[in-house]
Design a protein that fits this description.
This protein is 45% helix and 17% strand. It contains 13 helices and 7 strands. The protein has a 7-stranded mixed β-sheet, with helices on both faces. Strand 1, helix 4 and strand 2 form a beta-alpha-beta unit. Helix 3 packs across helix 4 and helix 9 crosses helix 13. The longest helix is centred in the middle third of the chain and has 25 residues. The structure holds S-adenosylmethionine (SAM). The site of S-adenosylmethionine (SAM) has 22 residues, from strand 2. S-adenosylmethionine binds next to strand 2. GO terms for molecular function: metal ion binding; S-adenosylmethionine-dependent methyltransferase activity. InterPro entries: MeTrfase_7, MeTrfase_capping, SAM-dependent_MTases_sf. Pfam families: Methyltransf_7. Keywords: Magnesium, Metal-binding.
Length: 377
Amino acid sequence: MAMKVEKVLGMATGDGENSYAANSRTPMKAIRENMPLLQKAVEQVYTSLSPASVMVIADLGCSSGPNALLIVAEVLGMISDCNQKTNEKRDMELQFFLNDLPSNDFNLVFQSLDQFHNVTRKEEGNEAAAAPYFIVGVPGSFYTRLFPKQSVHLFHSSYSLHWLSKVPEELSSGNYLNEGNIHIGKTTPPLVANVFREQFQIDFELFLQLRSKELMTGGRMLLTFLGRKSEEMLMHGEIGIMWELLSESLQSLVLKGRVEKEKLDSFNLPLYAPSMEEVKVVINRIGLFHIEHMGPVAFSWDPQDDDTDDDHEVLDPANSGTNVSKSIRSVLEPLIAGHFGEDILDELFVVYASVVAKYLEKKNAKCPSVVVFLKKA
Ligand SMILES: C[S@@+](CC[C@H](N)C(=O)[O-])C[C@H]1O[C@@H](n2cnc3c(N)ncnc32)[C@H](O)[C@@H]1O
């Protein structure tokens, strides 16, 4: 039986050096870049509601760390702007739901709420505050129903939907082998690449159907996830190379006798970075949403590298290699530790940092993503 993703996946907890909280700069850049779309979504929902309503916003795959509350802070700011623009006395209240898998470090989020409220709560003298708001954590997979029918106005999700519900059965059962790759690499057989794609199609369709039930009519959804520019399956874009280099690093531990070859052969990442066309096809096939906007965003692999020029040189490949390795470790640590054991982690990510550094010496690389803004039909 294929292992469901909630049994194995989890970002590194806490706020230490290797935690997700300390290594989530790339998603933060995407959230900031997509602010105009979020603003549009918030304004559209705000103006469609009567002044005394409760506006319900849910963030899916919120994780822990600064990004989990960044969305709440931004929406509060946008509501405050809307209030000022309309110049009308509104008694709107806001309900935020923060969703992630049960293994998520919700405690870290909850513990930071006091400080967050101190800055943002609508209290006398805090003119900038938007409206009374309430934050609730919702543990569970977004591949299941999470909310009552027609109860949410706006769904947001950033860097979460490329995670599949499971590794495709054909791979987890050992019927298909992936030639030492942990995702879609150059030597991945086309049949294997295809089962990843099919799993994405099944999961994304299910996700859209579930959210369509939970959204109010006219509700909005803003989704950002890893995606690829190229339609070519085997060249899974630059994001594929990132995983290929991790496969290479694991293979080098196999050669040193630190990892068993069978362990590597039975490990595959439960994720898929769809092309824009693949995303569009699923949305249009089920016909439950209008696409208001769809486009690519891309950032350098190194989360600390803010140069947006596509061809810029990597100034310090060794340093960038370390940064990339840290950010990938914060996302994959529990998954890798669960399969290979904790004791390979330090060595694996030192090797990975140097393999990535070597790659970046020749060429800069980007992490492409897809942004989709949808309205419930
Ligand atoms: C890379 S983090 C992104 C966190 C945050 N949204 C951000 O932009 O920084 C991806 C999150 O998605 C969550 N996730 C993956 N699959 C999920 C699922 N099926 N249901 C709910 N959350 C999921 C993971 O647990 C993880 O916390």
